[in-house]
Amino acid sequence: MRSKKSKESVKGNKFFLVSFAIFAFFASSSPAAMGPDLKNAPLSALQSRKAEVIRLGQEFEMKIDQEALLEGEGLTVRFDSVLEDSRCPEGVDCIWSGNAKIRLKPSKQKQTPATIELNTDAGAKSSPYLNYEIKLVGLKPRPKADAKVQPDEYKVTLIVTKK
User: CATH number for the domain including 55?
Assistant: First the structure.
């Protein structure tokens, strides 16, 4: 049989642990705990969307919802979506090669973000944004005759240059 003092000690320890857990949760999720650069960032920017760091003038690949950061430029490019994909499927003879259209969202600190649509064959393959040129080099995979490409399978190859 436990003594009265022992029961009070256990109760006190439980209260302390619960209080500490609540404090730790709120302290770690506050903007102040995230550092000065992220205090005023929107919640979506704070979520785990790690940007790949790339260099100006070099080709790079991204999947849908990935973001690339141009080293030393403060420019990010996000692969938003594939709007259409009417490219000729692998293993099929087509009269026309077809076209795929993608949507990118470039943005630069203290500048208005943009929406850019680029095409693999019909239409613009590159587009200006501020003093940069963003060019679509390729989109993989090609469709197959018996299966639609799923959004998480797409990989775009881009190159960003300065004008």
Answer: 2.60.98
For 110, residues 6+ apart whose C-beta sits below 8 A from its C-beta are none
β partners of residue 156 = 62, 139
Going across the sheet that includes 155-162, the strands are: 60-63, 155-162, 132-140, 126-129
65-110: per-residue pLDDT in tens? 999 999 999 999 999 999 999 999 988 999 998 999 999 999 998 8
Q: Which domain holds residue 12?
A: 4-34
Handedness of CA 144, 145, 150, 154 (dihedral sign): positive
Q: How far apart are the first and last CA of the chain?
A: 82
The residue-averaged pLDDT of 100-123 equals: 94
Q: Is residue 116, in this structure, part of any structural domain at all?
A: yes
Distances (CA, A) of 107 to 34, 94, 114: 22, 38, 6
Report the SS3 class of residue 139: strand
